[in-house]
């Protein structure tokens, strides 16, 4: 293997998903997947999407376990994935109805003051519920909130300042806790605000989109965009916990649902072929929000993410592989205009481009190219960039990508059998040019 | 001692200046102080200020050692104070003419790209010299620079964005190095920019004021002001090294010189009575920029700062004691208008207020009050706040101080013999009110 290349394969010793700590808070209530009741063999959950409605998300999840009533609601025990980072370790709680379990959140609140950062779309749906979860039976805690405009185009310094303004006007001190309630934009902005406010306060992630639940809320990458590039200003800053209440997906628009699946598909391609094969059988079930399929996909995605982040918190190596398709994708988001395409949509088209380039380099066979195109189309994601993107736009925006080192653009490319990738600047420039020409105007 | 109080005394076991690593890069060229040529006993350097001109700073420093010529300049060996923070440890180089010793800087530059952040006042004086030091004999390194407006009132988000704009437009990648060339404002802003750019790049501090050389460049506190309070947005982020070229003080205005001495005096009061006694004998020599006196005061201040920071990097306890007078002082800076008073001027008045309150509490005797007033007046620093400050202004601004915890304002107050202080929220509120009334309008 050439220097300047990091290889990550499913067979490498560094990857050991089975050794990941996945514990359950109340052991007898463990949710196991695949569920015996689903009548499927492992890796073979196949459900007809036509029989599943959105309303089944809560119902399905509630059916997973038989539990005593608590506060008149059925309580499910969360699945817990640990992110192992020494003194900065934290749990990801995954389950239906977790926002009803106030003790989960309250154990991670430091001090008596909380600031919930959310947006105009999420606030009417979940802000009251979140405030209730933070304060129920805990009258000493007071909660402030700041409601930001919704969308990637507001992930900027001006909007971030509204969080600081609110925190300072509310006289929040170093012992306060920030809570991010929303999708990836809210999580990234709230996390960066928490990293910077009084030089760092505690924070908690409550992701409400698939994108945030499977990817952006885990691992401590926080930040904002610059007009010239995505996520160029920020911090590595880990939360106290991540609380994934899968019920929040009930209200997620279809386009957002599909966008999140782009990141789920990514984990399969870069390091978990078995998961990819499972997705090929279950992609329609995921789109149709089958609760069991979603719970499994979220848990397995978080396990993959936690495993990678634990090995390389600050992206000096293997963590970069989580950015498959993102260098092309960020160029689309920046060039086409923040918020025009959702992040996952841009990543999907970017993934097709990275796979195309990998094939041009002779690193993968054409069956992988075909399978990637197929699954993304089934997920209702784009497989080509917007028509207005040109070769020169891609080149100029990619030049400020964070993975450029000493002027050399390093990319995540697939290499070998399904589930294997490399992070490398050691590739034939002609293959990159050919891919850019094939997918955009010159 | 009451709970919620941290005591730091000269006799405490945690303080052991003599055990601090103070090494010299090239041992035979060690600068020892007190100098045998100064004909003074330790702690008794007394020089007549009337015989010392500014131009002697360089000359004086050059006279310290006999050295071979290198690149046609006399080379002095730096004194080195280590800041011991495990994997984030770094050296502080102190000496005259260090900007001429390019190897000192170059060993700490990572990658091939450097961004020098400086201001309109410092750039004409030292930017070319700094670029030369970074590039001499090292043609692979290219240097960009961004020149900010000068002054505390520009320590804000809008000005910080100019640093990001320049870095991104220059396509600097994660392997670049930011260099702060200037006083405390530049160091704090450049450090926060380095902490945030691409989620963190390397940086180097080249402080050019006494304030920055003895205090703000050491210890990794970075940040910007908010209109409602000082340094409320920032990060703990350590530099690769701090390079203190005492020659840069040649061009420092008298008012800036005095401002820096407020922090020097602080070290004596909170933890180093012997240093305070030395200052009482040498304050005029310092004001007159006697090179040997300055070199000693800078080294001993850095040793004190390094010792405290090594014990408590993120200010969970003892590090807060470095803020003697700062809670009152920040209120003055915020209330009176950023930049109207220099930071050290506000700290000086704030120190008098903290000492007054300590006396009202019965924690120190009146001789300390008198000595503090005397030395600050001799240093040509203010000992009362601006007349426009009111009790309510102090109270409302101090309520957002970073040392407030769960609504309780903790202060650094002197207690016991000279050189002893406490960091506590356990004090009689009436003493605080009495001090505020004594020093400002109601």
TrEMBL record, chains A, B:
The family this protein is said to belong to: Belongs to the sugar phosphate cyclases superfamily. Dehydroquinate synthase family.
TM segment ranges: none
Protein's name according to its UniProt entry: 3-dehydroquinate synthase, chloroplastic
Reactions that this protein is recorded to catalyse: 7-phospho-2-dehydro-3-deoxy-D-arabino-heptonate = 3-dehydroquinate + phosphate
UniProt cross-references to Pfam families, sorted A to Z: DHQ_synthase, DHQS_C
Class of enzymatic activity (EC top level): lyase
GO biological process annotation, one example: aromatic amino acid family biosynthetic process
Family annotation (CDD domains): DHQS
PANTHER family membership: 3-DEHYDROQUINATE SYNTHASE, 3-DEHYDROQUINATE SYNTHASE, CHLOROPLASTIC
Location of the 3-dehydroquinate synthase N-terminal domain: 146-258
Annotated compartments: Plastid, Chloroplast
Role summary: Catalyzes the second step in the shikimate pathway.
Keywords, ordered alphabetically: Amino-acid biosynthesis, Aromatic amino acid biosynthesis, Lyase, Metal-binding, NAD
Major location category of this protein: plastid
Pathway the protein contributes to: Metabolic intermediate biosynthesis; chorismate biosynthesis; chorismate from D-erythrose 4-phosphate and phosphoenolpyruvate: step 2/7
NCBIfam families in alphabetical order: aroB
Cellular-component GO terms for this entry: chloroplast
Sequence ranges assigned to domain 3-dehydroquinate synthase C-terminal in this UniProt record: 260-404
Top-level lineage group: Eukaryota
Gene3D superfamilies (alphabetical): 3.40.50.1970, Dehydroquinate synthase-like - alpha domain
